[in-house]
Design goal:
Two copies of one chain form a homodimer.
Chain A (H helix, E strand, L loop, with lengths): L2 H21 L13 H4 L12 H12 L21 H13 L10 H18 L12 E5 L2 H15 L9 E6 L4 H9 L7 E4 L9 H13 L3 E8 L11 H8 L5 E5 L24 E4 L1 H4 L7 E5 L2 H8 L9 H4 L19 H36 L3 E3 L7 E6 L3 H14 L5 E5 L2 E7 L7 H16 L19
Parallel strand pairs in A: 2-3, 2-4, 4-5, 5-6
Antiparallel strand pairs in A: 1-7, 6-7, 8-9, 9-11, 10-11
Helix pairs in contact in A: 4-13, 5-13, 6-7, 6-11, 8-9, 13-15, 14-15
Bound molecules: pyridoxal-5'-phosphate (2 copies).
């Protein structure tokens, strides 16, 4: 593709994306695709000859779009936010256009230095403890996901506790409500299932400190080594918050590495009034959050911070000859390949830098604060409505509730809303009971969308008919030229 | 950012990227940045108020660009190719614009189905064995990197051999020239260092079958379990090719999982005459290659194929309640989160789909074939020039050579070329000796760039002065508005 073609097609695609984002609220939120629909519309073999870009873009509209669940819709309340934004999309475009490999400082110094720098900015932005800054023994890195961040934290902890040779007696801890990625990290790292202890949760879905204490005492008495504990700030299911400070005070004397998973809730720290989410972080070894969830940055972008980067680097560094270079040998630079599992890495700091500069601290504060207000307003309505029960106070952006009439009714209501295409919700279970989750954090979600969701829920609860939202024709306009 | 602003800034950025790629050959290939230069040009704290996009783009030109080593330059011959292209950049833009999470089929069916479909296309395109197609027990997935592909292959193999509980007696094999990611995968997975046996290489840098046999026999005799073997097709150092078929024939009877790492060389299969790179693949359990290296697709995009997807899924699947859904429960669909370490995933199939449709099989064949011709032509010159020695025949895109006058001279010549900014080479060591590598695979590299490289090497060898290429002023034009 010549630069001129890239200009031409690029302009068209930018318009397409802008049109898409402008109109995404008109789509049924969840795709109506059945398994196999998308594949059935695609030719069985790759093309022999080149195809025009316009043909590809037509297929995006006719084949791909019907198979998309619109995470960027203002009516998307399912799972967790994945709130992209203009500056982030443009940062991703620039990253693809520069096409550099940031595996070593030497392979493109700006790729590493901008990342370190922006991650120091984020320490300011969220009010994180200084131990996570890069000018001391700690520092930050962008991982692809919170799952990978948790994995490398486990690997660093294992290294500090003696490495693979000493694994047999190591035990780790996380609550029953911790994200499945903690168990996955243990599995990947080669631990037996029983080496990750599941700590009970209290009535707020938070880790029970007394149970953690009992488990640690048992393990220590049996000669096992408590090498890792994960506390979650903002569990996926219900946004529960584990008592980070108390967990750290309990386990740090045992030499335990404390990791905090704030994948979903960490972004709240941009609002000074919400900085209680950072309580105790000055005692922990690592902490991560996902700008690709709630900080207007498209996937993938997880920020992982460690208090002591040497454990991480020692756990993951293997230097083949072809990557040796003067700057690395001199120890003057950071080589982020030693902070992650993959070797290669793209220039992900650009999108986070673009986002922070576009919004500024004030803008981010405004939007995150607004989401929390919307969630709290929604929760207040749930609370006083006899048809529903609030399952947990909405402290941040997630509202967990259920139908007063029981699980079947909760499930029926959720499915009715989702089937209408006018909003999308997801669910979890608390004490075996079905709980509807409304996660309010998409970039363009406003009061009127939350109002509409509330109306929909009421209609579904009352058994009133809901007019479905249908796939609009010829949309987005850019797709039609 | 409003859709209108996104349009406006997006057009400007597309022009910027097109200008950049049009003129990237005018830049000194390697950045001249010293450690700390980039950071010193950035403000110490994040902005409080929003900043205009133009200011950000100005800083990209003045702060970021000088810190970039230009992997997209036609004069980039270092490390390995990372050859992006227009369609791939646009695919990445679309992926960012749609902003979907493809962790489950249900969270955006098109994201999963297009991936499965395009990976079946790639089986055709490269002439891979049918066992890798998704309509049988096998199938393909996009991982972020070959490193991650090798890791999940190790995890699947470990699962098949009895899982973590049986790890103690497991042993794996890879040659001394295998990529460092194999050792990293073993470390991550919790194996002791001695559980990955290093197999000697022959005079072609390929795995020595007799040594592998000896090691396997020793291990079996000692009651150890040969659970994994990695053969490399196209080693990073010298593009050496391990005898895949013979390796498989030797170890498969022991129940060993055979993984083939063709990260760099796998793309050669688009050219029918080069399909010897696929020899023996019908006997192996998994195979991966990097479209982000040599198939015009920007990082990250590694294609991993397995002959039996169940081992992979069983090794990695953990299903929390909030991700349960009817389609997954019915077993009708693929949930790619169970094929990788991270939970989240973006819509990476788009860029590969765009690339294949833009080039068509013929176009890809043409470009890959052209790179191989360029490399072979270059090697032929090296071979007859008394100042240089060819270290290995150039079968694919990499030429390995050295100065006849010895290591110091090789190193001096390489540094002289690199310091000129007119080309970038990297090195490895073979039998302790310094070897210069010229990897010829960038999208826009043509005969004249290879000719210029040859001129430069001659000048450096003869000690003639080389006029350095300087950072052009006010470039790319788009950056100046
Ligand atoms: C608390 C928590 N941790 C981890 C994750 C995993 O996120 P990622 O896709 O970044 O790995 C999630 C996402 O659901 C989460 O909510
Ligand atoms: C043969 C081989 N395997 C694996 C890798 C690692 O690549 P990735 O960055 O995709 O993990 C490389 C890259 O240098 C390679 O050449």
């Amino acid at each position: 593709m010549t630069p001129d073609d890239l200009r031409r097609h690029g302009h068209r695609l930018v318009d397409w994306v802008a049109d898409y984002l402008e109109g995404v609220g008109d789509y049924p939120v969840a795709s109506r695709s059945a398994p196999g629909d998308v594949r059935a519309a695609l030719p069985p073999h790759p093309p022999t000859s080149p195809e025009p870009f316009d043909a590809v873009l037509d297929d995006v509209a006719s084949v791909v779009l019907p198979g998309i669940t619109h995470w960027q819709s203002p009516d998307f309340f399912a799972y967790f936010p994945a709130n992209a934004s203009g500056p982030s999309i443009l940062g991703e475009l620039l990253s693809a256009g520069l096409g550099v490999q940031g595996m070593l400082w030497a392979t493109s110094p700006a790729c590493t230095e901008l990342e370190t720098h922006v991650l120091d900015w984020v320490v300011d932005l969220l009010g994180l403890p200084d131990r996570f800054r890069s000018d001391g023994p700690g520092g930050g890195v962008i991982e692809d996901s919170a799952s990978s961040a948790t994995l490398v934290a486990v690997l660093a902890a294992r290294h500090r506790a003696g490495g693979a040779a000493a694994m047999g007696e190591m035990v780790g801890y996380a609550s029953a409500e911790a994200h499945s990625s903690v168990r996955k990290a243990f599995t990947v790292a080669g631990f037996r299932d029983d080496q990750l202890r599941v700590v009970d949760v209290d009535e707020h879905q938070a880790l029970r400190l007394d149970h953690l204490r009992t488990l640690v005492e048992e393990d220590v008495a049996a000669g096992r080594r408590p090498f890792f504990a994960c506390a979650t700030v903002g569990t996926t299911g219900t946004m529960a918050v584990d008592p980070v400070r108390a967990v750290a005070e309990l386990v740090v004397p045992h030499g335990t590495w404390v990791h905090v998973d704030a994948a979903m809730a960490g972004a709240a720290g941009v609002v000074p009034e919400l900085r209680w989410v950072n309580d105790g972080l000055e005692l922990v070894d690592s902490w991560c959050f996902d700008p690709h969830k709630w900080l207007f940055t498209n996937f993938d972008c997880d920020c992982l911070y460690v208090a002591d980067r040497s454990a991480l680097v020692e756990a993951l560094s293997i230097v083949p000859e072809y990557l040796r270079n003067a700057a690395s040998d001199a120890g003057d630079v950071i080589d982020y390949r030693d902070w992650q599992v993959p070797l290669g890495r793209r220039f992900r700091a650009l999108k986070l830098w673009f986002v922070i500069r576009h919004y500024g601290a004030e803008g981010l504060r405004h939007h995150i604060g607004r989401h929390v207000e919307l969630a709290q307003g929604f929760a207040a309505r749930v609370e006083v409505d006899p048809r529903f029960e609030l399952v947990r106070p909405a402290e941040l952006s997630l509202v967990c509730f259920r139908a007063a009439a029981g699980d079947d009714e909760s499930e029926r209501i959720m499915h009715a809303v989702n089937a209408s295409g006018r909003a999308l919700l997801s669910h979890t279970r608390v004490d075996e009971r079905f709980v509807i989750r409304a996660s309010i954090g998409q970039t363009t979600t406003e009061q009127r969308h939350v109002d509409a969701l509330w109306e929909l829920l009421g209609a579904a609860a009352d058994g009133r008919p809901i007019e479905p939202r249908l796939q609009p024709d010829g949309f987005p306009p850019g797709a039609r030229g």
